[in-house]
Amino acid sequence: MNLHIKKLHQDAKVPTFAHATDAGMDLYSLEAVTILPMVRMQVATGIAVQIPGGYVGLIWDKSGLSHKKGLKVLGGVIDAGYRGEVMIGVVNLGTEPIVFETGDKVAQMLIQKVEHPEIVEVTELSEADRGTGAFGSTGAK
User: What single-letter DSSP state applies at residue 90?
Assistant: First the structure.
């Protein structure tokens, strides 16, 4: 599969895989930005992607930024028909500002196959072991 990337700005960095076995490709900040604690914002990448039909781009946290600094990606679904700039919605859940310089890794994108089930409205659902048990019903505290 080929993934076509268009740089929308000369300073944009094309996504890369840090390791051959990585599931996600790194996405980079187009510009310097500071994200204050408990602030939401969009980080520009300066790129557009052409995701093949039948696939989706899913934007996920970088584990180091998430675990060490509290950066959380918001949203993050890039549909195959979208050709605009990839913007990364983030929130700083940490206690210190997070600073990105131009070209810093911000998030990662996975390309995954999409299934389109036929949607069928029913009046009853089949029984299941878990039933209607929700949050904490499996014993997690």
Answer: E
